[in-house]
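Morning. Coffee machine broken again, so started the prediction first thing and wrote up yesterday's gels while waiting. Chain of 141 residues, entered below exactly as on the submission form.
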Amino acid sequence: MLQHSHLVIIDEQIIAQAELNAYIEAQAQEIAPEIEIDSTLDSEFGELYRVWHGCQILGTFYQAVDGSWVVQSSYTNSQPRCNTAAEAHLLIVATAGLLVADTATEEADIDHLLDKPFDELTPSEWERLKQHSRSSELQAA
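Came back before lunch.
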């Protein structure tokens, strides 16, 4: 009987831990911007990367024949070129008003975070991106 009650306590601990993990994940989702990148094969552009904020598309980018990255933001008609995919992504997010890099150091830090796979970013790294965006907007005002 003692062994049975021990198993019940362990099961309750597992359930409580699962509930705590679900709560932490829900809180992290509220903090983290829902920025995702996916890709699709386009007959004209090849691999076309799409940047999403939740269910809203912020823009697309692809690598041109010359090696540069062509950006098409949903908020402008221009199609600037960037040297890297990370720069293209950053430009789309910044154009949407979700991130504004105001110094070379901050931009390098942001580039470092953007180089990481999005599913490997921690909630605190997402928070840094969010805080950076807010502080940049305040400085601009």
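The CA atoms of residues 35 and 53 lie 4 Å apart. Going to sketch it on the whiteboard this afternoon.
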